[in-house]
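Q: What would this complex look like in 3D?
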Amino acid sequence: MPAEPHLHAPGEGAGSELSPLELRVRALETVLSEKGYIVPEALDRIVEAFETKIGPHRGAKIVAKAWVDPEFKRRLVADAGDAINALGEFGPIGVHLLALENTPQRHNLVVCTLCSCYPWDLLGLPPFWYKSAPYRSRVVIDPRGLLEEFGLSLPSDVEIRVSDSTAETRLFVLPMRPQGTEGWSEEALARLVTRDSMIGTGLPLRPHEVSP
Amino acid sequence: MNGIHDMGGMHGFGAVEREPHEPVFHARWEGRVYAMNSAAGYLGAWTIDDMRFSIEALPPARYLAASYYERWFYALENRLIERGLVGADEIAAGHSLRPGKMPVQKLEPANVGAVLTRPFFARPEQAPARFRPGERVRAKDLNPETHTRLPRYVRGRVGVIEAVLGCHVFPDSGTTGKGEDPQWLYTIVFEGKELWGEAADPSLKVAIEAFEPYLETA
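A: Here is my prediction, written as structure tokens for the whole assembly.
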């Protein structure tokens, strides 16, 4: 695959020239606005929501709650959308949401081989690599090789369950609670929950990896 | 369609490149494209599967050469032109040259919550579900030139129904003018070696969601 253009996208710093693509995006927004189809301020609000409000901290909070509250965990695994909406923490989350529970016998991984489906109202927009050809192509055929690249080596007798998001159900991983966290508060536990641990390409941080 | 987007199991794309401290959007234009796509989708002129199909329909070389949000942008332009909402001449001019089609519903700033939650796709059942958890099913060898959500790597392969997920809008119908046509949706689990042969990782299982018309009794 050619070098990903985004890594080299021109900045928009003061005085920088806009690229042809940036000009074309700007032109389309002007056309849509002049024709009465869109309101630019609505676009501002959407961008702001993803940059400031919706992100993996939401999922981390849910995972930490499941670690300390067995009844909540039971409801989360049964129907994650309902369980999360019943909390009323973030405003409505789309239903058709499943929490895939990791166990000592099974490690879950989530992908969308066909496009980029992701539980974005719970975890924020997906990272670039999740949408990239290398991840989408390899994870269903060589998950262990891919996990090694992410620094994760799992025992060979652990089942690797790769879930491909081919319909409108969205999936996230409920990782196992790290050892050595007995008695930790929900808030402290949430700091251990990384985005990658909810996709399955990582594990939660261990206690010594976060500052007290 | 048997497009370049259907990447599961392909080789040659190299290592996954991760970016530490990745921003939500890498440049202002990416955020504008994301939001423009949401606001334009709110007009009601297309469904999420129409959007996916328009991205899959980009020529393969262009698909691979474009960054993620470039694909979204090119596909958005194409949909706007195909639906007669915007003229190619207007995009070239960078200005409206004639009045817009009167919408429709327009996304107002006070209402953006409507596009910040994933929509609801479950529909009342049209008939009883044909398969039950534990049944073995074969994914049919379907090769439509139109949109489908049955990935190539499972076609012709046998898996086990793990869950019945309800009746949902059927993507293959919506994108070919046949409306929502709700169909039963299942989680199917395949053994690694059923998909990739004897050399496959014995600990691998792959789950997909598949609509009933994709499946037959094995």
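A: To summarize the key features: The radius of gyration of chain A is 20 Å. The domain at 55-209 of chain A is CATH 3.90.330.10 (Nitrile Hydratase; Chain A).
Q: Very helpful, thank you.
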